Amino acid sequence: MSDTICAIATARGVGAISIIRLSGPEAISIVAKLFDGKDLTKVKSHTIHYGHIINKNEIIDEVLVSVMKSPKTYTTEDIVEINTHGGIAPTKKVLEILLENGARLAEPGEFTKRAFLNGRIDLTESEAVENLINSETDLERKLALNTINGKVSDKIKKVRDIIIDLIANIEVNIDFPEYEDALVITKNNLPPKLEIIKKELETLLEESKVGEIITQGIKVAIVGKPNVGKSSLLNSLLKENKAIVTDIAGTTRDLVEGEIELKGIRLKFIDTAGIRKTNDVVEKIGVDKSLEAIKTADLVIHVLNNNEEFSKEDQEIIKNLKGKTYITYVNKNDLPTKLEITGNNLVYGNTLTLDGIDLLKAKIIELFNLDSINTSNLEMVSSLRVINLIKEALNAINNALANVTKDIPVDMLAIDIKQAWELLGEITGETYQDELLDTLFSKFCLGK
After folding, report:
1. Spatial distance between the Cα atoms of 303 and 330, rounded to a whole number of angstroms
2. Is 191 helix (H, G, I), strand (E, B) or coil?
3. The domain 5-115 belongs to what CATH superfamily?
4. Range(s) for CATH 3.40.50.300 in the chain?
5. Strand intervals (E) in 69-183
6. What is the mean pLDDT of residues 178-194?
7. Which of residues 439 and 326 earns the better pLDDT score?
8. How far is CA 40 from the centre of its chain?
9. Which of 169, 226, 308, 326 could pair with 249 as two cysteines, CB 3.0-4.6 Å apart?
């Protein structure tokens, strides 16, 4: 990291301003050579200066230049940000001149990668930066900020501290048996200590379910036999004509998607093809996709018609809903009732009058406890990478607990305990592989 990197930090296109960011040992000197204004090598840190970018006696643009000196910067290196007029031409030209004068074009996420490698933030905080940039709801924003502020990392470090104390105690027993002040770890007192670690990890995973809902949203599949009003229900929920609606059964042959926000959570609706036996090759593909959508959905809305008796097709759909969270939405409640059905998550409505839409939303809020999410402290894990590592660490602790009852010495049990400690270290980046960093930061935008 001895070179100086630069990149456009704002979205490409026409706007009021564009920002080109530089970071590295030559950031200030490179811009100073091109800046017609104050001598940037002599100005105070965290100051902004008016002037022009000049190249070969030509004024390229009127700019404001911010100078931030190491170590109190995002990357802990010297950083310069050039505010140019928005637009492709001036932004591109200033970047081109910077590259000609010694800067290197940054790789995606390289500014944040440098912040991590320089010890300013850990890996979970690095991921949260990208989550904050991509956040679409206020809850996503709050969750990302809490992670950036280190509140999630603190929880991981707390568990690692408990584990390392146990490992240290075991190793003292092995290497210095004559040290009488140390607690001797035996198969009798080891399980309670492992149970404490297990409970901490299980709590993190339980909390992560809320984090996943906030960041990933709730995937909702709308299913039913043909011509029961699935597409009309989707359009009613989205308040737009997203799906084609006709009286012809089998109109929807592919998945149609739409999204709304409910209590700060994104609901990702999927309108599926009507599920029935068919000889039509194209329609059958749609039916297969509908069945697959049921498997991957967090919530299924099963649509029935109030004026139709419960059919064999409906029964087959119910079989596919086994083990799933689902709501039965009975459409056309204004027509004579022929349907006989009971259940807890039952909502009656009408997609023509929008009757029942609010009740349907209320049922979703109840099932996923969305009201409590809005009042929670939002200090939980949400990254799938982190969740998987916690699960692996929990498996390692469970292995150690299972082996306590076997004829295995304590020092061998410590192998699983150490593995859990190392896995949790991968979460914060205290232990990591270069390939992981390359993959993680490649998802970032260039200027971050």
Report:
1. 6
2. helix
3. Probable tRNA modification gtpase trme; domain 1 (3.30.1360.120)
4. 217-374
5. 79-85, 104-105
6. 68
7. 326
8. 39
9. 226
Cα torsion through 349, 350, 355, 358, rounded to 10: 60
- Mean local confidence (pLDDT), 360-367: 95
How many Cα neighbours within 13 Å face the side chain of 172? 14
Q: What is the pLDDT of residue 238?
A: 87
Looking at this protein, which amino acid is placed at residue 248? I
Tokens at 59, concatenated: 């004024």
pTM: 0.76
Total count of residues recorded for the chain: 448
At residue 249, φ and ψ (nearest 5 deg) are -65, 135
Query: At how many degrees (to 10) do helices 123-134 and 151-175 cross?
Result: 160
Q: In the predicted model, what is the mean pLDDT of residues 28-55?
A: 96
Q: What is the fold of 217-374?
A: Rossmann fold (3.40.50)
Phi, psi at residue 348, to the nearest 5°? -100, 140
pLDDT band at 184 (very low <50, low <70, confident <90, very high): low
d(CA 314, CA 130) in angstroms, rounded, equals: 44
Per-residue confidence at 421, pLDDT binned at 50, 70, 90? very high
- Which segments of the chain belong to CATH 1.20.120.430? 151-213+385-441
The pLDDT tens digits for 143-177 are 999 888 888 899 999 999 999 888 887 876 665 55
* Interatomic CA distance for residues 343 and 325, integer angstroms: 13
Whole-angstrom distance, CA of residue 384 vs CA of residue 219: 16
**pLDDT single digits (tens) 226-236:** 888 888 888 88
Strands (DSSP E) found in 120-273: 218-223, 256-262, 265-271
In this structure, the dihedral spanned by the alpha carbons of residues 148, 154, 159 and 161, taken in order and rounded to 10 degrees, is: 130
At 261-271, the pLDDT tens digits run: 999 899 999 88
Task: Report helix angle 151-175 to 138-148, nearest 10.
Answer: 40
Backbone Cα Rg of the chain: 29
Coil, strand or helix at 353: coil
Residue extent(s) of CATH 3.30.1360.120 domains in the chain: 5-115
In this predicted structure, the answer to whether residue 69 has a pLDDT above a threshold of 80 is yes
CA within 13 Å, CB half, 95: 24
Least confident range of 41-50, 80-89, 165-174, 297-306: 165-174
